[in-house]
Structures are given as C-alpha cells and as structure tokens.
Amino acid sequence: MKIFITDGSPEAFFTAVFDAFAEKECIVTSDENVQLAFDSQVIRTVYDEEKCERVRKGIARYDKDAEDDVLFVLRSCDPLKEQIAFEYIKKLMKSKTAVKKMLSLPEVIEFNDILYKVTGEAHRLKGLLRFMESRDNVLYAPYSPDNDITDILMRHFASRLKNERFVIHDVKRKIAGMYNGHEWIMNYVGEAEVYLSEYERAFENLWKKYYLAVNIEERPHEKQMKRSMPVRYWKFLPEKNQKT
Amino acid sequence: MIDADKLEILTESAKYDVSCSSSGSRRTNKAGGLGNASVGGICHSFTPDGRCISLLKILMSNDCIYDCEYCPNRRSADVRRASLTPDEICELVINFYRRNYIEGLFLSSAVFGNPDKTMELMTETVSKLRRVYNFNGYIHMKGIPHADGALVMKAAKLADRMSYNVELPSEKSLKLLAPQKTKESLLLPMKSLNNAIEYDKQNNVRRGKVLPAGQTTQMIIGASPECDGQILKLTEALYRNMHLKRVYYSSYIPVVQSSKLPANGAGLLREHRLYQADWLIRFYGFDVNEICGEDENLSPDYDPKCAWALRNMHLFPVEINTAPLEMLLRVPGIGAKSAYRITEARKFSKLDFDNLAKMRIVLKRARHFITCKGKFCGTDSLAQVKTSLLISGSGEINEQLTMFSEPSTALSALTGEI
Fold this sequence. Notes:
Helix content of chain B: 25-40%
Number of strands of chain A: 8
Number of strands of chain B: 11
Structural class of chain A: alpha/beta
Oligomer: heterodimer
Radius of gyration of chain B: 23 Å
Strand content of chain A: 5-15%
Shape of chain B: globular
C-alpha cells in the first residue's frame, strides 16, 4: 500500500490528493511517525503547482466552500486529518455535487466532526484569549490551542482592535501573528520577553476582583463552568490563577 | 483609576441580572475606533456558578430611592453604597475590552436622585464611550422606569440592546413588592422602543439603527404566587406584542428578609422548566395552551415537551423519513439541531436507526415516538414509556444551568436559536 507523506502544508496536501486519487487504497498523512505495514511504499510528496491547482479547481467545481472547509480541517491536531480530508474530497469528486449536507455519510460525519472542533475552538478562543499591555503599548497574548488557529484569530482581532498593535503567540507551535496597526503577518517566535506597562497589574487585579464578585455563590455549578471553559485553557486566564 | 472596593460593591449589586448575552448586533468598527460586535455573541469567561461573563455587568450606582421588597439595594437596606462617574466606567470598559476580558458593557443602575437624572447620567456614559472613546463594542443598557421618553430614545440610538425588567409576573405582585414601579412605567417605554425598532425595520434603515439587538426583559419567579401558566402567557404576549429577543427568569433567592416574601427560594428546577417551555414557544412552534393551562404549573417530573407528547400519544410514532419538520421538532429528545440534521440527511438517502445513531441523534427518549423505514424500536405500553422517560430525565437537575450559557456556534445560528 502506498503512503503519501506531506510536509504538512495545504499545497503539499493537495498535490498528494492528486497523486493518491487513482489509488485503490492508500494513506495520506503528514505524520512522520505513521505506522508502516509490511507492504507499504512511502512516497514523499513535494508541492507541485499544477497538480495542486487542478485539485483545487476540481473541488471548487462541485462545492465552492469545500476548499475553505478542507483548509480548516488541515489545521486540526487530529493525526488522521489528511486522511479524513482526502476521503471527503474523494467522495465529493465521485458524487459530482456538494456533499456537505449529506449528513448520514460516514466520510461527511468524520469530516464535519473535525471541522466543528477547529471552528469551535477558534470561536471559544475569541473569548478566552487574554492580552496584556507591554511598556511600549503593544498587546501580547500567549496561548496554547489544540488546533493551529492563530491566523483565524488574527483576522478577528485585526478588525476589532484595528488601531492597536498586538501579538498572538501560540507557545506550543512557536508561531505568532503580529499586527502593526495596518496589516498582520505570521512568524516563527520561540520565546518572547514582555515588559509590562505600569498599569497592567492594576487592571488585571480589577478583572480578578470582578470575576469573584459577579459569581453567585448560592448557585454553585462547577461542572458547567468546566464544560464551557475546559481546564486546559486556564493557564493563560488571570481570573483562574488567583487565590480565592 | 476606579477603586477596587467600588467595583466590588457595584458588581455584586448587578450580578442578579440574568441577561448576559452579547448577540444580535453587527455593529462594525469605525476609522480610529475600538471594537465591533459579533452577531453570535462571544463568552469571555465562566464563573463557578456556571454562568458566562460576556459583558462587564455593573451598576452606575446602588444608592436607590426606591424600596422594592426583594431588592438587596432597596432604600431601607443597610448595605455599602457606591457610585461611579461616566469617566470611571469608560476607562474600565476600554481597558477591559482591549485585554479581551469582555465583549462590552452592561450598564444598569439604582435610581439615585430621580429617574431622569439617573437615565441622563447613564446615557451620558454611553454617549461618551461611543463618541469620545470611539467604542464600537456591544452595549446593553437597562431602562429606568419613569424616565423621560426623549432620554430613553437618545439612549436607544447608542446602545445595542435595552431592557426594562417587568420584575414580577403580575400587576398585583408589582404593587405589593415594588410599589414605586407601575406596570405602565415598564410597558410603555418598552412599547415605544418596539415602535422605533419596527419603524427602522419597515423603512430598511441600515445605519444608526435603534437597538440593533432588540429588547429583553426579566422577571423573578417564586417571590409571588403566580403559576407557570400565567407566567408563560405573559411571556408569549411579550414575544408577540413587544417582539422581545428574550424573556429571562430568575428564580427567587431569599437574600432579603421580609414578611411579604416567601422564606424559601423557588428552586432551580422550576426556572429550568420555564426556560424549556420558553424555548418551545420560540423555536419549536408550540402554543402556550399546548404546554400549560393558565392556572397550572409545569410538571417537575417531565420536561414540557415530554409532558405534551405523553398527553398526545395518538400523534405518535412519526416516521423519521417523511414527517414534516414541525412534527420532528415535537418528538421528545429531538432538538432543533437534530431535526435540522435529519431533514438535511434524508434528502439524499433514507435513514435507519443505525444512521441516526451515527449522526449522534440521541434516541434514549426519541425511540418511543419514531419509526425508521417503518421500524419501531420503542415500547408500546404508555406506563413503560413514562417510566423510561422519568429515568432518562433524572440526571437533568444537575444539568439545568446550561440555560445560562449562550451557545453561539455557527450551527445554533443556523437553527435560529440566536
């Protein structure tokens, strides 16, 4: 069986889809540690502009939203993401019509599951991201999301905080989005050193105080709190890092 | 900078207001401005009571001239008093917003001096936020009863949402427990705001709409003797006549000692059942009379949809592959999202129980009320169905505060929950 290994980029993935399309059974992945079977033949896919474009055009012919959906799925932390996206594209091409709403097909169920996990986390973090103000008035937000969603957040905050300068730093993937008040870019950032502004601690303390005061103690429901705001996100929330 | 103790006092006074949603507005950022509104709403944190924090919910002052029985801030209560200036509030909102702590401001106030003075200072605050600080985030303002109509309209042009709390489910209870507020002082401004919103809608006003996120209200449950049927009737009338976006219920908590008030709280289950019924009215096409008689209470044992289905067993089972959407929505255990999934999926292929399970349609309750390709997997005996529904509903009380959170994913927008 052929195993197509990509470098993790969407372009290499679309190229691999082109090569793998005619195969009866094969695996598409970006996982270097994929389990190999006895008869497996490893193929390292490198980006090929023509193949990539043909796949993208082919997808767009039947469903103009499918490419965006695939790009979302490719940001997932799920090790099977490429395989699931590949199966979805195959189904789309064979059906010759949009399959997004064929909600009982297993390929569509698996694909949508990952899609909702990615878009769901992006939505959640639009709320849970926390900026701190540095001495030179740049807002800095470190975080560690499950999926690679930093550029989705950059788009959201660039329109919301359009006259600010800010950095959103995925400390797990060591990448950061940076906005200078006009445009934003993505960059490799290992570690960042931030000198806080004079008022930063004061506003953080006011926020912590607010958080404690707005809770209704007579109606405890910690389970619901944790369901809506899973513990793995607490590390970067000032209000969850205080002595009560 | 604002004093931390003042913030604490004015937050604790504001926290019993249930509304916290930041949805419904598409306000965009302007040149040189800060912030925008997200139509689905965004939750920024969650407190240990399971509620979300979306807006900075705060009173301008808790120094009240009114003496409402149930209110911890009433004139005769011995509590710490504090007030804020418009600039103190603006500074706090801007700094919290830039750090992404909040989605905007929920500004309420006790009535200090007189209603006009209160409304004027609140409006001045919001006006400053919008015009001086160029803030385009979400603003929810509480309306002050008896305040001048022109002031209220001025506020409505600046805020995204406003709310006049009806406080209690009947005029009689209002007279007894909140004698300084009258039915007219709450309903008339609500009505004129509704007229202004409808006017904008009919004339296709795009920019500078009055209250793009509409109006809401809130009432206390269990502080007065009204039964659920009466409460729901009122709710339905408010949705129909005032086009409210939400009616919030707040189960009575005895924080205040008074001979006019019950000694015990109303319990959270009752509040939960009312919210379930409210959902049925808004999203499931139910009429109040189908859910609850005027002088009846909702069943504590079954959720209102189950209770309705048990009274109407002759309408079931329905065939998943052919039943109209309106009927699917009436099947216990099938919610708006599941009904949407079923109607989409069955366009392409017929569904069986296996398909439904894979689509994560929960069949625990639904199986007694549906067939798939003619096959029935439930129980025929009414008694057994009842027991099975009781058991499957028994974990519910722990789950009830979910109604406080505002799930706002793309799908809930699709299904019309927002």
